[in-house]
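Collaboration report, partner site 2.

Our partner group contributed sequences for two proteins of shared interest, and the home lab folded both. The records are reproduced in the order in which they were received, starting with the first partner submission.
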Amino acid sequence: MQRLLTAQTDLMAILEDRGYRSTGPRRDVINAIEKKEGSFIAEEIGGDVPGVGRATVYRTIKLLLEAGVICKLAMPNGEPPYTLARIEHHHHTICLGCGTV
């Protein structure tokens, strides 16, 4: 079941409700994601949290994806951008020239 997000939604609380611990690195990754205005890639988040291991970034994104609070977009270049899932069902338009979502 996908959960609707509002501006006040606490992503860490969603993971805690699913039984995951609130660790410092995981909170750092989630804070970086919550600050993103549009789409983001995992490498961007990793750059925003230099003290957090790459595996933690990818695992946290995977947990949020499984919880239905972020969307993964399929891109021709293979590197998937993610967005916060703010509405139940939606589509994304991707520029074929520059790849902007």
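Second partner submission, folded after the first:
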Amino acid sequence: VVLILVYRMPINLAAWLYLPVILVVQLALLLGLGLAFAALNVFYRDVQPFLALGIQLWFYASPIVYPVTAVPAALRPFYYLNPMAGIIEAYRSVLLFGQAPGSYLGLAAVVSFLIMGAGYWYFKRVEFLFADLV
């Protein structure tokens, strides 16, 4: 926010109303992944190093250091199956361009909540075994 003010970016407060929605979608994704990988780490100790590698690869598979326009238009529907691509692009739309996010946020929300549901289901399915293994 400080940099937006310093560089005098236009602020559209109506678009900023989408920020809590984007944050909820991001938290759903992170909660699902966190629950799933926490449960997997109890059973398989090799999950932690593979997770570090996976996060680094995921960083380059998400539009953090490059714009989404760098991805060919024919591949973008598949690219947006990565929920972080839609989340990051939604943050850019709202904060940098002052626009409402596009339909990619809806796809990111669906994928994020599916991951959250699957992560929660798996965690609850194996939770009773934690005490025996830890």
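Feedback sent to the partner group on the second submission included the following. The mean pLDDT is 92. The first helix runs from residue 2 to 6.
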